[in-house]
Structures are given as structure tokens and as C-alpha cells.
Design goal:
This protein is α+β, with helices and mostly antiparallel strands and about 180 residues long. The protein has 8 helices and 4 strands. Strands 2-1-3-4 form a 4-stranded mixed beta sheet. The termini are far apart.
């Protein structure tokens, strides 16, 4: 719970520090690059979590990483602040909330589409366009193939799910038959 509060607070502060909306996506990408580095290199987490390592060494490493990743200066400043306040281990939550803030500021929403086979680019564009009309926002679609769905698509937008998969239809039919047999 506290991780969510911390993540939200710092994400909003980072957003407030980025006044030029054209910089939002590069800042998000820089932030996500650091999260990816932390996830890929478990020793980084141990390094930053270790209380005996001075903050100066942690700050020096962040500056070094920022240079290698060509991080946005706002992200570097945020990371240095997180080290100073012993909050660097909340970076993944901050990135998650910052993505939400960026989406809100840019009037966009992310949708996840799972299908039994790869969607064509025309289908992705049409789906994004139709959802955009319904939601009144730009829709960013992430697709993935899930062969277990057999056919159809499953769409997630935020916490809303539309499941038009053959797998789901078969499960609904099975429950209906079981309910009718039980009566």
C-alpha cells in the first residue's frame, strides 16, 4: 500500500517537473530503461538496498548509468532524490504510475489485445480507431498471441475486460449446461 502512495507521489512530482508535453515520452522511456536495468541486474537492487553503502557511491552509480542510458535529466534528478530519501527501491511503482500520468496528460489509454493468432496491422488500426471513438481518447494497442484462446479476441482497457474468445464461450456454455442439469 505504501509503495503505491510513494509511486504515485513521485510520479506526479516528476510529471509536474516536465512542463513540455513533448518530453513526456522520452522521460517515460528513460525511467523504464532504469527499471529494466534494475530487473535485469539483480545486483543493482542489492547494491541500492544495502545500508552500509554510502549514498555518495549510489549517486555516482546513478550518474554513470544515466550517462550510459542517455537518461533524461529529469529522471536523473529524480533518481538522485530517491537515493537521498532512501526510496530508490520504489522505482518500478513510480514508473508504473508515471505511465498512467503520461497517458492522462496526453489523453490516451492503453489497451491489451490477446488473440489466438497475430492481428494484422489493419485490424489493429481499425480496433484502435473504433475504441478511440468510443472512449474519446487515443488508444495505444499492445497485442499478444495466446494459442489457448482457440479463436476470437480478449480486450483489456484498464480494469475492463471484453472476452469474445472461443475458450470463454465454451466455458460459458459448459456452466449453462451444468446449471440446467442441476435443476
Amino acid at each position: 500500500m505504501i509503495e503505491n502512495l510513494i509511486g504515485k507521489r513521485y510520479a506526479e512530482a516528476l510529471s509536474d517537473s516536465v512542463t513540455d508535453a513533448s518530453r513526456l515520452n522520452p522521460v517515460l522511456e528513460s525511467l523504464q530503461a532504469f527499471v529494466a536495468a534494475f530487473q535485469a541486474q539483480g545486483h543493482l537492487v542489492r547494491f541500492f538496498a544495502h545500508p552500509a553503502i554510502p549514498k555518495e557511491k549510489k549517486s555516482a552509480l546513478v550518474k554513470n548509468l544515466a550517462g550510459r542510458l542517455t537518461a533524461d535529466p529529469a529522471v536523473t534528478s529524480l533518481l538522485l532524490l530517491l537515493i537521498e530519501r532512501n526510496r530508490i527501491l520504489h522505482l518500478a511503482k513510480i514508473a508504473d504510475y508515471f505511465q498512467i500520468v503520461v497517458d492522462q496528460r496526453q489523453n490516451q489509454v492503453r489497451a491489451s489485445v490477446s488473440s489466438a493468432s497475430e492481428l494484422t496491422s489493419a485490424n489493429r488500426e481499425r480496433l484502435a480507431s473504433e475504441l478511440g471513438k468510443i472512449l474519446g481518447k487515443t488508444v495505444l494497442i499492445e497485442t499478444r498471441v495466446d494459442a489457448s484462446l482457440i479463436g476470437g479476441v480478449q480486450l483489456r482497457v484498464g480494469d475492463q475486460v471484453a472476452d469474445a474468445t472461443l475458450k470463454n464461450r465454451m466455458a460459458l456454455l459448459k456452466r449453462k449446461i451444468e446449471t440446467e442439469e442441476g435443476e
